[in-house]
Amino acid sequence: MKERLKTALLLVLVLSSLVQSYFLIYRLPGSGSVVKSENSYIKTEDMGPEAKAENLIYPKKMIIHLGEDKHTVFYPGQMFYDLVNNRLKGRTFESFQRRTLNNMDWSKLRASSKGIELSFGSGIPVTLLQKVMQITPDSLFEGESIHKMWLYSIEGEPKVHALFFSTEGDVVYEAAQADLTVQDIHQLVDFGLDWVPYTMQEGTSFYMPEEPFDMVSLEMPIGMYTVEQMQRSLFFDPSITRNIRERDGSEIYTDSKRSLQVDQGQNWMSYTDPAAPPSGESSPGKDVLSAIDFVNQHGGWNGSYRLSQSEDNEDRTLVEFQQYHRGYPILNTLGFNYGIMKLELQKGTVTSYERSLLYVKTEEQKKKIVKLPAGDELREKLDKLPDSMKIVDLEPAYLPFVNENGLRLKPVWAVQLLNGSMQVLE
Fold first, then answer.
1. 85 FRET partner, CA 20 to 30 A, in 8, 10, 398, 402?
2. pTM
3. Nearest-10 crossing angle of helices 182-189, 79-89
4. Where does the source fall among the domains of life (predicted)?
Protein backbone atom coordinates (compact mmCIF):
# COMPACT_ATOMS: atom_id res chain seq x y z
CA MET A 1 0.00 0.00 0.00
CA LYS A 2 2.87 2.36 0.90
CA GLU A 3 4.58 1.68 -2.42
CA ARG A 4 1.40 2.59 -4.33
CA LEU A 5 1.07 5.85 -2.38
CA LYS A 6 4.72 6.71 -3.04
CA THR A 7 4.27 5.97 -6.75
CA ALA A 8 1.10 8.11 -6.92
CA LEU A 9 2.77 10.96 -5.03
CA LEU A 10 5.84 10.79 -7.28
CA LEU A 11 3.57 10.89 -10.37
CA VAL A 12 1.76 13.98 -9.04
CA LEU A 13 5.07 15.72 -8.34
CA VAL A 14 6.39 14.95 -11.84
CA LEU A 15 3.19 16.20 -13.48
CA SER A 16 3.25 19.37 -11.35
CA SER A 17 6.85 19.97 -12.32
CA LEU A 18 6.02 19.56 -16.02
CA VAL A 19 3.09 21.99 -15.77
CA GLN A 20 5.21 24.58 -13.95
CA SER A 21 7.99 24.20 -16.51
CA TYR A 22 5.49 24.75 -19.33
CA PHE A 23 4.24 28.02 -17.86
CA LEU A 24 7.75 29.22 -17.06
CA ILE A 25 9.01 28.53 -20.57
CA TYR A 26 6.01 29.38 -22.71
CA ARG A 27 3.94 31.85 -20.71
CA LEU A 28 4.58 34.88 -18.55
CA PRO A 29 1.89 36.66 -16.56
CA GLY A 30 0.17 39.26 -18.77
CA SER A 31 2.11 38.34 -21.91
CA GLY A 32 2.09 35.94 -24.81
CA SER A 33 4.55 33.21 -25.62
CA VAL A 34 8.18 34.15 -25.17
CA VAL A 35 9.36 31.37 -27.42
CA LYS A 36 9.11 33.01 -30.82
CA SER A 37 10.64 32.52 -34.20
CA GLU A 38 13.51 34.90 -34.88
CA ASN A 39 11.64 36.08 -37.95
CA SER A 40 8.28 36.73 -36.26
CA TYR A 41 7.16 40.32 -35.68
CA ILE A 42 7.67 41.01 -31.99
CA LYS A 43 6.11 43.99 -30.27
CA THR A 44 9.17 45.86 -29.02
CA GLU A 45 10.19 49.48 -28.48
CA ASP A 46 7.19 51.84 -28.50
CA MET A 47 8.22 54.95 -30.44
CA GLY A 48 4.84 55.94 -31.83
CA PRO A 49 1.23 54.76 -32.19
CA GLU A 50 0.21 51.92 -34.46
CA ALA A 51 -1.74 52.72 -37.63
CA LYS A 52 -4.50 50.94 -39.51
CA ALA A 53 -4.24 50.45 -43.26
CA GLU A 54 -7.39 52.49 -43.88
CA ASN A 55 -5.77 55.52 -42.22
CA LEU A 56 -2.75 55.34 -44.56
CA ILE A 57 -4.65 55.00 -47.85
CA TYR A 58 -6.23 58.17 -49.21
CA PRO A 59 -5.97 60.34 -52.36
CA LYS A 60 -3.09 62.80 -52.54
CA LYS A 61 -5.56 65.35 -53.97
CA MET A 62 -9.02 65.78 -55.48
CA ILE A 63 -9.54 67.68 -58.73
CA ILE A 64 -13.05 69.10 -58.90
CA HIS A 65 -14.43 69.71 -62.42
CA LEU A 66 -17.12 72.39 -62.23
CA GLY A 67 -18.13 72.39 -65.90
CA GLU A 68 -17.55 75.19 -68.42
CA ASP A 69 -13.81 74.39 -68.21
CA LYS A 70 -13.62 75.52 -64.58
CA HIS A 71 -11.73 73.50 -61.97
CA THR A 72 -10.39 73.56 -58.43
CA VAL A 73 -8.32 71.24 -56.20
CA PHE A 74 -8.82 69.95 -52.65
CA TYR A 75 -5.94 68.61 -50.52
CA PRO A 76 -5.97 66.24 -47.50
CA GLY A 77 -7.06 67.89 -44.29
CA GLN A 78 -9.12 70.59 -45.99
CA MET A 79 -12.76 70.63 -44.92
CA PHE A 80 -14.21 69.98 -48.40
CA TYR A 81 -11.67 67.21 -49.07
CA ASP A 82 -12.83 65.40 -45.93
CA LEU A 83 -16.53 65.91 -46.79
CA VAL A 84 -16.16 64.49 -50.29
CA ASN A 85 -13.87 61.65 -49.22
CA ASN A 86 -16.12 60.53 -46.36
CA ARG A 87 -19.21 60.51 -48.56
CA LEU A 88 -17.52 58.49 -51.30
CA LYS A 89 -16.29 55.91 -48.79
CA GLY A 90 -19.88 54.89 -48.12
CA ARG A 91 -20.84 54.40 -51.78
CA THR A 92 -20.84 51.01 -53.52
CA PHE A 93 -19.08 50.22 -56.83
CA GLU A 94 -19.57 46.91 -58.64
CA SER A 95 -19.83 45.07 -62.00
CA PHE A 96 -16.63 46.31 -63.62
CA GLN A 97 -16.13 46.55 -67.37
CA ARG A 98 -12.72 46.91 -68.99
CA ARG A 99 -12.22 49.69 -71.54
CA THR A 100 -9.32 51.43 -73.30
CA LEU A 101 -8.31 55.06 -72.80
CA ASN A 102 -8.20 55.73 -76.53
CA ASN A 103 -11.98 55.47 -76.80
CA MET A 104 -12.59 58.65 -74.76
CA ASP A 105 -12.22 62.36 -75.55
CA TRP A 106 -10.68 63.27 -72.20
CA SER A 107 -10.16 66.96 -72.98
CA LYS A 108 -13.84 67.42 -73.82
CA LEU A 109 -14.92 65.38 -70.81
CA ARG A 110 -12.68 67.40 -68.49
CA ALA A 111 -13.93 70.74 -69.79
CA SER A 112 -17.66 70.12 -70.16
CA SER A 113 -18.65 67.57 -67.50
CA LYS A 114 -19.06 67.98 -63.77
CA GLY A 115 -17.03 65.45 -61.82
CA ILE A 116 -14.40 64.51 -59.25
CA GLU A 117 -10.93 63.08 -59.89
CA LEU A 118 -9.25 61.27 -57.02
CA SER A 119 -5.50 61.11 -57.61
CA PHE A 120 -3.61 58.40 -55.68
CA GLY A 121 -0.22 59.00 -57.28
CA SER A 122 1.81 55.94 -58.21
CA GLY A 123 -1.00 53.40 -57.76
CA ILE A 124 -2.92 51.55 -55.03
CA PRO A 125 -3.73 47.81 -55.32
CA VAL A 126 -7.49 47.27 -55.65
CA THR A 127 -7.41 44.88 -52.69
CA LEU A 128 -6.28 47.82 -50.54
CA LEU A 129 -8.83 50.23 -52.00
CA GLN A 130 -11.46 47.74 -50.88
CA LYS A 131 -10.45 48.52 -47.29
CA VAL A 132 -11.44 52.18 -47.64
CA MET A 133 -14.18 52.03 -50.29
CA GLN A 134 -17.18 49.77 -50.91
CA ILE A 135 -15.77 47.99 -53.98
CA THR A 136 -17.47 44.65 -54.62
CA PRO A 137 -14.97 41.80 -55.28
CA ASP A 138 -14.50 41.23 -59.01
CA SER A 139 -12.05 38.71 -60.48
CA LEU A 140 -11.44 40.88 -63.56
CA PHE A 141 -10.58 43.93 -61.50
CA GLU A 142 -8.96 42.73 -58.25
CA GLY A 143 -5.47 42.16 -59.62
CA GLU A 144 -5.07 45.77 -60.75
CA SER A 145 -3.45 48.82 -59.15
CA ILE A 146 -5.29 52.11 -59.51
CA HIS A 147 -3.65 55.53 -59.74
CA LYS A 148 -6.78 57.60 -60.39
CA MET A 149 -10.54 57.44 -59.95
CA TRP A 150 -12.89 59.71 -61.90
CA LEU A 151 -16.59 60.17 -61.13
CA TYR A 152 -18.58 62.33 -63.54
CA SER A 153 -21.98 62.98 -65.08
CA ILE A 154 -22.82 63.98 -68.64
CA GLU A 155 -25.60 66.49 -69.16
CA GLY A 156 -28.77 64.75 -70.28
CA GLU A 157 -27.70 61.30 -69.03
CA PRO A 158 -29.40 59.83 -65.92
CA LYS A 159 -26.41 57.83 -64.63
CA VAL A 160 -23.05 58.55 -63.02
CA HIS A 161 -19.90 57.20 -64.66
CA ALA A 162 -17.28 55.79 -62.26
CA LEU A 163 -13.88 55.13 -63.86
CA PHE A 164 -10.84 53.47 -62.27
CA PHE A 165 -7.54 54.03 -64.09
CA SER A 166 -5.04 51.16 -64.03
CA THR A 167 -1.30 51.73 -63.72
CA GLU A 168 -0.80 49.12 -66.43
CA GLY A 169 -0.97 50.57 -69.95
CA ASP A 170 -4.01 52.37 -71.30
CA VAL A 171 -6.60 50.38 -69.39
CA VAL A 172 -9.55 51.85 -67.50
CA TYR A 173 -12.36 50.05 -65.66
CA GLU A 174 -15.89 51.38 -65.37
CA ALA A 175 -18.23 50.34 -62.57
CA ALA A 176 -21.48 49.52 -64.37
CA GLN A 177 -23.28 49.91 -61.05
CA ALA A 178 -22.41 52.80 -58.74
CA ASP A 179 -24.41 53.85 -55.70
CA LEU A 180 -24.36 57.51 -56.78
CA THR A 181 -26.89 59.76 -58.47
CA VAL A 182 -26.28 62.72 -60.75
CA GLN A 183 -27.57 64.92 -57.93
CA ASP A 184 -24.97 63.42 -55.56
CA ILE A 185 -22.15 64.38 -57.93
CA HIS A 186 -23.50 67.90 -58.43
CA GLN A 187 -23.79 68.44 -54.67
CA LEU A 188 -20.18 67.31 -54.10
CA VAL A 189 -18.89 69.37 -57.02
CA ASP A 190 -20.66 72.48 -55.71
CA PHE A 191 -18.32 72.48 -52.69
CA GLY A 192 -15.69 73.84 -55.07
CA LEU A 193 -17.67 76.76 -56.51
CA ASP A 194 -16.10 79.39 -54.24
CA TRP A 195 -12.69 77.69 -53.92
CA VAL A 196 -9.40 78.75 -55.53
CA PRO A 197 -9.78 78.51 -59.35
CA TYR A 198 -7.35 76.21 -61.18
CA THR A 199 -6.54 75.83 -64.88
CA MET A 200 -4.67 73.12 -66.72
CA GLN A 201 -1.21 74.22 -67.79
CA GLU A 202 -1.11 74.29 -71.58
CA GLY A 203 0.52 71.22 -73.09
CA THR A 204 0.57 69.36 -69.75
CA SER A 205 -1.72 67.20 -67.62
CA PHE A 206 -1.48 69.14 -64.33
CA TYR A 207 -3.42 72.04 -62.87
CA MET A 208 -2.18 75.28 -61.35
CA PRO A 209 -3.94 77.90 -59.19
CA GLU A 210 -4.87 81.31 -60.54
CA GLU A 211 -4.87 82.93 -57.09
CA PRO A 212 -2.08 82.92 -54.44
CA PHE A 213 -2.09 79.71 -52.42
CA ASP A 214 -2.12 80.02 -48.62
CA MET A 215 0.01 77.73 -46.47
CA VAL A 216 1.40 77.94 -42.93
CA SER A 217 5.13 78.20 -42.32
CA LEU A 218 6.02 76.79 -38.91
CA GLU A 219 8.59 75.25 -36.61
CA MET A 220 8.22 72.18 -34.41
CA PRO A 221 10.49 70.88 -31.63
CA ILE A 222 12.17 67.59 -32.44
CA GLY A 223 13.52 64.54 -30.70
CA MET A 224 15.71 61.72 -31.94
CA TYR A 225 15.44 57.97 -31.52
CA THR A 226 18.60 56.45 -30.08
CA VAL A 227 20.57 53.61 -31.58
CA GLU A 228 19.70 51.56 -28.51
CA GLN A 229 15.99 52.08 -29.16
CA MET A 230 16.36 50.94 -32.77
CA GLN A 231 18.38 47.90 -31.70
CA ARG A 232 15.74 46.88 -29.17
CA SER A 233 13.10 47.42 -31.82
CA LEU A 234 14.72 45.48 -34.67
CA PHE A 235 16.95 42.73 -33.25
CA PHE A 236 15.74 39.51 -31.69
CA ASP A 237 18.48 39.72 -29.06
CA PRO A 238 20.20 43.17 -29.02
CA SER A 239 22.79 41.95 -26.48
CA ILE A 240 24.63 39.88 -29.12
CA THR A 241 25.03 42.68 -31.68
CA ARG A 242 28.47 44.08 -32.44
CA ASN A 243 29.42 47.52 -33.71
CA ILE A 244 31.40 48.26 -36.89
CA ARG A 245 32.47 51.82 -37.70
CA GLU A 246 32.67 52.69 -41.41
CA ARG A 247 35.11 55.13 -43.02
CA ASP A 248 32.31 57.51 -43.99
CA GLY A 249 31.38 57.96 -40.33
CA SER A 250 28.34 55.71 -40.36
CA GLU A 251 28.04 52.81 -37.93
CA ILE A 252 26.78 49.28 -38.51
CA TYR A 253 25.28 47.06 -35.82
CA THR A 254 24.89 43.38 -36.67
CA ASP A 255 23.99 40.08 -35.07
CA SER A 256 25.63 38.24 -38.01
CA LYS A 257 22.24 37.87 -39.72
CA ARG A 258 20.64 41.30 -39.69
CA SER A 259 22.33 44.69 -39.87
CA LEU A 260 21.42 48.22 -38.80
CA GLN A 261 23.37 51.02 -40.48
CA VAL A 262 23.12 54.47 -38.89
CA ASP A 263 24.18 57.63 -40.73
CA GLN A 264 24.80 60.07 -37.89
CA GLY A 265 25.18 63.02 -40.27
CA GLN A 266 21.75 62.49 -41.85
CA ASN A 267 20.16 60.92 -38.73
CA TRP A 268 18.99 58.13 -41.00
CA MET A 269 18.84 54.37 -40.42
CA SER A 270 18.83 51.45 -42.84
CA TYR A 271 17.93 47.98 -41.58
CA THR A 272 18.44 44.87 -43.70
CA ASP A 273 17.55 41.25 -43.13
CA PRO A 274 18.82 39.49 -46.27
CA ALA A 275 18.55 36.05 -44.66
CA ALA A 276 14.82 36.40 -43.98
CA PRO A 277 13.20 33.34 -45.55
CA PRO A 278 10.22 33.81 -47.87
CA SER A 279 7.00 33.07 -45.99
CA GLY A 280 4.96 32.00 -49.02
CA GLU A 281 2.91 33.51 -51.80
CA SER A 282 2.33 37.24 -51.79
CA SER A 283 0.84 40.10 -53.77
CA PRO A 284 1.43 43.88 -53.74
CA GLY A 285 -1.66 44.35 -51.57
CA LYS A 286 -0.61 41.72 -49.02
CA ASP A 287 2.94 43.06 -49.01
CA VAL A 288 1.70 46.57 -48.15
CA LEU A 289 -0.26 45.13 -45.22
CA SER A 290 2.86 43.24 -44.10
CA ALA A 291 4.86 46.47 -44.31
CA ILE A 292 2.29 48.31 -42.18
CA ASP A 293 2.33 45.47 -39.65
CA PHE A 294 6.13 45.58 -39.55
CA VAL A 295 6.21 49.31 -38.75
CA ASN A 296 3.46 48.83 -36.16
CA GLN A 297 5.49 46.13 -34.43
CA HIS A 298 8.90 47.80 -34.80
CA GLY A 299 8.48 51.32 -33.51
CA GLY A 300 5.20 52.74 -34.80
CA TRP A 301 4.38 55.91 -36.73
CA ASN A 302 5.78 59.29 -35.69
CA GLY A 303 3.14 61.43 -37.41
CA SER A 304 0.66 61.31 -40.28
CA TYR A 305 1.61 59.16 -43.30
CA ARG A 306 0.12 58.18 -46.68
CA LEU A 307 0.90 55.15 -48.81
CA SER A 308 2.69 56.83 -51.71
CA GLN A 309 4.21 53.88 -53.56
CA SER A 310 3.60 50.16 -53.98
CA GLU A 311 5.77 48.84 -56.78
CA ASP A 312 6.02 45.18 -57.69
CA ASN A 313 9.55 44.57 -58.99
CA GLU A 314 10.01 40.94 -60.10
CA ASP A 315 10.11 38.94 -56.84
CA ARG A 316 10.24 42.02 -54.61
CA THR A 317 7.80 44.73 -53.60
CA LEU A 318 8.92 48.26 -52.83
CA VAL A 319 6.64 50.14 -50.42
CA GLU A 320 6.97 53.81 -49.48
CA PHE A 321 5.04 55.93 -46.98
CA GLN A 322 5.11 59.72 -47.30
CA GLN A 323 4.87 61.86 -44.16
CA TYR A 324 2.29 64.68 -44.18
CA HIS A 325 1.68 67.73 -42.04
CA ARG A 326 -1.46 69.85 -42.28
CA GLY A 327 -2.42 67.84 -45.34
CA TYR A 328 0.78 68.50 -47.34
CA PRO A 329 3.76 66.18 -47.95
CA ILE A 330 7.09 66.77 -46.24
CA LEU A 331 9.75 66.43 -48.94
CA ASN A 332 12.71 64.10 -48.72
CA THR A 333 15.76 65.80 -50.27
CA LEU A 334 19.35 64.88 -51.06
CA GLY A 335 20.57 67.34 -48.43
CA PHE A 336 18.18 66.21 -45.72
CA ASN A 337 16.68 62.72 -45.61
CA TYR A 338 13.36 63.04 -43.85
CA GLY A 339 9.64 62.56 -44.44
CA ILE A 340 9.49 59.01 -45.80
CA MET A 341 9.65 55.39 -44.72
CA LYS A 342 10.89 52.83 -47.25
CA LEU A 343 10.45 49.08 -47.03
CA GLU A 344 11.34 46.24 -49.37
CA LEU A 345 9.61 42.89 -49.08
CA GLN A 346 10.20 39.48 -50.55
CA LYS A 347 7.13 37.22 -50.51
CA GLY A 348 5.59 39.05 -47.60
CA THR A 349 8.76 39.29 -45.48
CA VAL A 350 10.48 42.63 -44.88
CA THR A 351 14.12 42.49 -46.03
CA SER A 352 14.90 46.22 -45.91
CA TYR A 353 13.58 49.13 -43.83
CA GLU A 354 14.67 52.79 -43.90
CA ARG A 355 13.51 55.79 -41.88
CA SER A 356 14.69 58.97 -40.21
CA LEU A 357 15.75 58.87 -36.57
CA LEU A 358 14.28 62.35 -36.07
CA TYR A 359 10.72 62.86 -34.98
CA VAL A 360 8.64 65.98 -34.37
CA LYS A 361 6.74 66.78 -31.21
CA THR A 362 3.12 67.88 -31.43
CA GLU A 363 3.29 71.57 -30.57
CA GLU A 364 3.67 74.07 -33.44
CA GLN A 365 5.75 77.24 -33.03
CA LYS A 366 6.42 80.45 -35.00
CA LYS A 367 3.42 79.96 -37.27
CA LYS A 368 3.05 82.35 -40.21
CA ILE A 369 0.76 82.45 -43.24
CA VAL A 370 2.71 82.28 -46.51
CA LYS A 371 1.25 82.97 -49.95
CA LEU A 372 2.73 80.77 -52.67
CA PRO A 373 2.80 82.33 -56.16
CA ALA A 374 0.08 81.51 -58.67
CA GLY A 375 -1.10 82.40 -62.17
CA ASP A 376 1.39 84.09 -64.51
CA GLU A 377 4.02 84.41 -61.79
CA LEU A 378 3.98 80.65 -61.25
CA ARG A 379 4.03 80.00 -65.02
CA GLU A 380 7.16 82.14 -65.35
CA LYS A 381 8.89 80.03 -62.72
CA LEU A 382 7.90 76.83 -64.52
CA ASP A 383 9.13 78.22 -67.84
CA LYS A 384 12.60 78.74 -66.35
CA LEU A 385 13.03 75.02 -65.68
CA PRO A 386 15.20 73.12 -68.20
CA ASP A 387 13.34 71.50 -71.08
CA SER A 388 14.81 68.17 -70.00
CA MET A 389 12.58 68.24 -66.92
CA LYS A 390 9.37 66.54 -67.97
CA ILE A 391 6.84 67.76 -65.39
CA VAL A 392 3.88 65.49 -64.68
CA ASP A 393 2.48 67.15 -61.56
CA LEU A 394 2.59 70.25 -59.39
CA GLU A 395 1.75 70.26 -55.69
CA PRO A 396 2.19 72.36 -52.54
CA ALA A 397 4.61 70.78 -50.09
CA TYR A 398 6.81 71.41 -47.07
CA LEU A 399 10.58 71.69 -47.42
CA PRO A 400 12.14 70.67 -44.08
CA PHE A 401 15.15 72.27 -42.38
CA VAL A 402 16.72 71.64 -38.99
CA ASN A 403 17.72 74.69 -36.97
CA GLU A 404 18.43 75.50 -33.34
CA ASN A 405 14.70 75.54 -32.56
CA GLY A 406 13.86 72.19 -34.15
CA LEU A 407 12.31 71.38 -37.51
CA ARG A 408 11.29 74.23 -39.77
CA LEU A 409 8.68 73.47 -42.45
CA LYS A 410 8.87 75.91 -45.35
CA PRO A 411 5.93 76.01 -47.83
CA VAL A 412 7.01 75.50 -51.45
CA TRP A 413 5.72 74.43 -54.82
CA ALA A 414 7.17 71.06 -55.81
CA VAL A 415 7.07 69.56 -59.30
CA GLN A 416 7.04 65.84 -59.88
CA LEU A 417 9.14 64.75 -62.84
CA LEU A 418 8.51 61.90 -65.24
CA ASN A 419 11.15 59.76 -63.50
CA GLY A 420 9.24 60.06 -60.21
CA SER A 421 11.63 62.49 -58.50
CA MET A 422 10.55 65.79 -56.93
CA GLN A 423 12.04 69.19 -57.74
CA VAL A 424 11.49 72.24 -55.49
CA LEU A 425 10.37 75.34 -57.38
CA GLU A 426 12.30 78.12 -55.65
1. 398
2. 0.86
3. 160
4. Bacteria
